[in-house]
Fold:
Amino acid sequence: MKGDGPLCLNIVDLPPEGTVLEGAVASDEIGLEDESRIRCPGPVRYRLQAAPIVQEEGVLVRGWVETVLLVMCDRCLSMAEHLVRADDVCHHYPDEEGNLLDLTSDVREDILLTFPQSSLCRMDCQGLCPSCGKNLNEGDCSCSQGKSDEGPWEALSALDLSPGGEE
Structure:
């Protein structure tokens, strides 16, 4: 059933009940190259069911894909693991030309669309000290900026927001 690559399907011999593509592929084989903020150290796992659509002469592919990404935290800039899983993969390929259907680019897109827009290493991440840059998750810093009892919104407490207050 498979063609040249791990995510290629020979659609000429596709049985009416369909076929299952299951396995893992290296992240660089589908175009998930490492960048400064994102790394994909392991494989992309998948389980896809491909079946012909008789009425429309096409192929329907459904299933899931997942991988673990190392993503830079938006607050402290450390790398943290995130499981990225697309449980609702569904692609319709109408009137495909040729014998092989390559699912590689669509699987890559499914991973990227599931990727979180913002990333934290943990929910209570303290981030970096704005003055000296020390990672506050590792302990307090020694600069005066980190020792202040006032929060960043302390200046707003002096505002008089009552109806008769100053303008």
About this structure: The beta strands are 8-10, 19-26, 38-39, 43-53, 58-72, 79-94, 100-102. The chain has a mean pLDDT of 84.
